[in-house]
Amino acid sequence: MTTQTAPKTKIKIAYFDFTSCEGCQLNKLNLENHILDLLEHVEIVEFREAMDDKADSYDVAFIEGSISTPTCVERIHDIRRRAKILVALGSCASIGGINAMKNLQPIEDVREIVYGEDKYLFPTLPAMPLSAIVKVDYEIHGCPMSIPEFLQVFKALAMGKAPIKPDSPVCVECKLRENECLFDRGMVCLGPITRSGCDAICPSFGQFCTGCRGLVPNPNKNAMLDILTDHGLSLQEAEKRLLLFNSYQHPDTFK
Ligand code: SF4
Ligand code: SF4
Ligand code: SF4
Predict the structure, then answer these.
(1) What residue's CA is closest to ligand 2, atom 8?
(2) How does residue 1 score in pLDDT terms, banded at 50, 70 and 90?
(3) Out of 14, 31, 49, 218, which residue is the most buried by the measure of CB atoms under 10 Å away?
(4) How would you list the strands of the sheet with 138-140, edge to edge?
């Protein structure tokens, strides 16, 4: 007598992009070594970068990019209605990222600079992370998003568990890797107030942290400004460094 096992139900996932360089989605296509393992557990039902199909609902929606137009607002509400779990991919989606630097200038000036006399054809909004408009269940930080962190979140969701969210600063991971601090080599680095989870990849290769994963909870921003100015930056240069990825969260603090 033969026994039949019921076909395994796969988790339906979809990918979407908003205002972004699409680098996080392209980064995901670099998962060659893991893709077959992942596809055993999931069915990709929508992914503009890789397929034409569309779906009505998803177990998990992975979303790249910031909200920056009225159309983005409508789309993200629609995706939220269809998705059981919504995950923000990369700094544009999770913290507003580089896009939010536009918020530091009057929105009408930005429209004029980008679209010139056609500006009335292109309605725009200040750049926002997804969480400014809808409930976000998980965030995968970085510019581009970290592939190890993506796999960790992906596997946790596939197993029905809550992913781990790093909240210590990059300096912790940097010290665990026994790196020489770049401040001692005459550079300035945002590791002390930047969220870890990237395994301090930049300082490990001699490149200072630019803060792409956003701020740790309760960052001591004034102390960071003091350190940066003590190490040779003017206050204006130090503020610019801090605003590169953090313009949405802390525009008034760093301006
Ligand atoms: S987080 Fe960086 S790599 Fe990802 S979409 Fe935004 S700008 Fe591109
Ligand atoms: S190099 Fe940067 S991340 Fe590493 S310990 Fe120094 S300040 Fe922290
Ligand atoms: S070290 Fe800093 S800039 Fe580099 S990936 Fe990590 S958070 Fe981003």
Answers:
(1) 171
(2) very low
(3) 14
(4) 42-47, 11-17, 58-64, 83-89, 138-140
Domain 11-158 class, CATH top level: alpha beta
Question: Ligand 1: which of 16, 17, 21 to mutate, most ligand atoms within 8 Å of CB?
Answer: 21
Strand duo 42-47 + 11-17: pairing? parallel
pTM > 0.85 = yes
Q: Which residue ranges make up each domain of the chain? A: 11-158, 170-254
Q: Are 82 and 236 in contact (CB under 8 A)?
A: no
Distance 111 CA to ligand 3 centre (A): 30
Cβ–ligand 3 contact at 194 (below 6 Å): yes
pLDDT tens digits along 164-197: 889 999 999 999 999 999 999 999 999 999 999 9
Amino acid 255: pLDDT: 47
Tokens of 100: 């939010």
Greater confidence (34 vs 172) lies with: 172
Structure tokens at 115: 């679209």
